[in-house]
Structure formats: C-alpha cells, structure tokens
Amino acid sequence: MDQNIYDRIGTLLTTRFGVQQHELSPEVTLENLRFDSLALLEFALAIEESFGTPIDAEELSPVHTLESTVELVAAKGVTV
Amino acid sequence: MTTAQRAAVLAGLGAWVPPTVVTNRMLAQRLDTSDEWITTRTGIRQRHAVDPGMSTCDLATEAARRALKSAGLDTVDLVVLATTTPDRPCPATAPEVASRLDMIGVPAFDVAAVCTGFLYALATSAAMITAGQAETVLVIGAESFTTILNPDDRTTTAIFGDGAGAFVLRAGTTDEPGALLGFDLGSDGEGAELIMVPAGGSRSRSTGVEPEREDTYFQMQGKQVFMNAVLKMTESTRKVTDSLGWTVSDIDTLVAHQANLRIMHAVADRLGVDREKAVVNIDRVGNTAAASIPLALADAAAAGTVTAGQRVLMTAFGGGLTWGSAALVWPDLVPA
After folding, report:
1. Which of A42, A48, A50, A58 to probe by mutation at the B interface, max B CB count within 10 Å?
2. How confident is the model at residue A80 (pLDDT cuts 50, 70, 90)?
3. In CATH, which superfamily holds the domain spanning B180-329?
C-alpha cells in the first residue's frame, strides 16, 4: 500500500468528512466511517480534485476499506 | 479604460409558488422514506405543489406580474418562458402567459433546457436586447414539475417541487448595476438518458406502441447526475469568472441551481467559495427545475441576503445534459 496516498486520503477524510484521526486504519470500511451513498460521491469528487484522476460514481462502494481505496487510486497511475 | 456597451440590465424580480405545501412527513405517510432520510440527503424539508387544474401558465403569470410590478412596467417587447412542464405538448405556453398579462401581439416563446432552462432563457433574452431586437424582456422560469413525477418513485418525489420566478430585463449599459456581464452555456446530448421522460415525444409515439406507465414519468440517474452537476457547475462558473477577470473570491453571492443542498455545498467547496455565500431556499421549495434560480434570488432579495452592489454568480445544470452560468452586480431593485 502506498503510504503517501494513504496519508493524503486520511487528511481528506479528517478535514472534509468529519472522520476522527483515531478512526483511521487500513482495514476500516467507508461504511464504518458513516458514509452514505451521497458521501461516497462527495468522496470520489474530493479524490478527483486532490489527485487529479477521475473516479466514476460506481467505483467506490461502502465496503471499500481505506487500503482498497488507496489501491483504487494507485491503480489509476497516481504517484504522490 | 473600457467603454460601456449596450447590455441587458436586471430591472425587476418576482416569484410565486402554489399555496399547497407537501412536507417530508406527508411523503413518508405513503412512501418508504422518512423526514430524516430526505433532509440529510437533499436538504429539503417541504415543497409546493399545484392543485388539480392548476398549470405552469398560472404560476408563470403570477411570478411575471410581480416582476413587472417590481420593474414598474405594464408591458415588454418579448416574453420568454423556460419550462420543462408546459401546459400542453403543443403549443408553447409563453404566448398564453403574454395574453393573460394583456400583451397580445408581443412575441413569446418557450425555452427547454430543464434545470438550466432559466439561464438559457436569460442568455437568449439578453442577446435579443444587445442585438437591438428588444428594449425590455420578461424572462420567466416556471414549473409544475410534480405533474411529471412518478408518484411511486420516492427519490424524485422527494426532490422536486412547483414554482415560478421571473426577471424583467431592460436595455442599458455594461457599467450599470444589474447589467448581465457574462454567460457560459453548454450541452452534452450523450448524457440525455441520465435525466428524461422516456415517452410522450416523437421517438416513443412513432413506434405506435403504448408506453410502459413508468416511462411516461420523469426519471433520473441520481449518482451520475450528482457527479456531473458538481463538475459542470464548477467548470462553468470558472469560465464566467475567468472571462470577466474575476477571481472566485470576488463572488459575494453564489446562486447555484437548487438541485440538492449537498450538490450546492460540493460546488461551493470545489470552487473555494464559502458555503455561507451560497443562496439556499431548497429547504422550503425543493428543486423547482427551471424556476429554481429566480425563485431563490427572489427569496434572497426579500430576506436581504442579496443586496445592491454584490457580485452575483448564477450557475445551473440539468437535463440534456445542459449547464450554464451568468454573472451580474446586483442592482437596487424595488420589491415586488
């Protein structure tokens, strides 16, 4: 897992989605972080804005963990 | 120093909503939804709905009367009505609005761009003024949107409402408060299926096959619409600010189409505009499609949250797909 991508996603979650620092872990799912269907879209837009790579509406789901979210972003060729 | 040029100037503003209110609790009594679900996902607490027999023409005429009064005018040179829900598939509704306002003989036509309709109508009207084809124009956005909703669809039923708003434009110059300073309009027909009423038009009727009931109602692909709405309204806003030499921090008031509170917040966040600068009345009227921007502005003007001298940026996204933005410095208007 790319630690730099993980850290930046963690910052997005704590600064824009009301997630507490202690809630962050590679295994935690977006559902565990109280994400509803619209929050997933807001998160996809925030990732696109932060990393400059588009994420489709269907690509993120509540069962995504932070680790699998990092892998999704990394698979798009993002380097931080 | 730039020389002032002929421009369309906002001279009057009015709005009207039908008196019947439908609250979230009322919807929850007949659909699998709740006040909490609707409020947290849309920011909507209630919407207005036309009573049986009422139509878009009724709403448009009431809003137009108020805008004309605000402008101190009895008549104009042109009437343009943006609507998704005309009184009939044929003819356009604008001529009947003009007639009811004692303006028989005045040119009048409808514009269809769904939730972007008002900005398309505004751009068209402003162009008629700058081209010297009209000195005054009545631009209306009006919808009886509840009439095209599937009563069994808990999503669209929760979002949309009925209402009307209107601007009166007059010829003036670009250096006056109220002058419409810049526009951006766009479309992408490849996304037509994201927001549509599938049946009722020539594509369906030419088959000779009776349509499925749900295809006669409005349908929307929520996720894709959410993403596209945020991206396009942000991009379009930036095009207008760039064209005017404004920065985002120059925007005093952001009037985004009242699609969904979370879409409006996402647009403000992405632009870097303070959410407090966004005009919000979706909690009281829902998404009124083509009526949304003038209705929101009329509410904001009445509440004193938009005042003379503020730099106002309007932006919308809707079916088509269509999107657009426009900017002006708010003038000193007479309340309707």
Report:
1. A42
2. confident
3. Thiolase/Chalcone synthase (3.40.47.10)
List all residues of chain A from 60 to 79 with a beta carbon under 8 Å from chain B. Answer: none
Predicted pLDDT of residue B1: 52
CATH topology of domain B6-173: Peroxisomal Thiolase; Chain A, domain 1 (3.40.47)
For chain B, residues with pLDDT lower than 50 are none
Residue whose pair of structure tokens reads 């502005």 in the numeric block: B297
- Cis preceding linkage at B151, omega within 30: no
B128, B166, B179 from B132: Cα distances, Å: 6, 21, 15
Per the structure, the count of domains in chain A is: 1
pTM: 0.95
Give the gyration radius of chain B's Cα atoms: 19
For residue A57, the model assigns a pLDDT of 77
pLDDT at A79 over 80: no
Asked if B266's CB is within 8 angstroms of A42's CB, the reply is yes
Any B CB within 8 A of A38 CB: yes
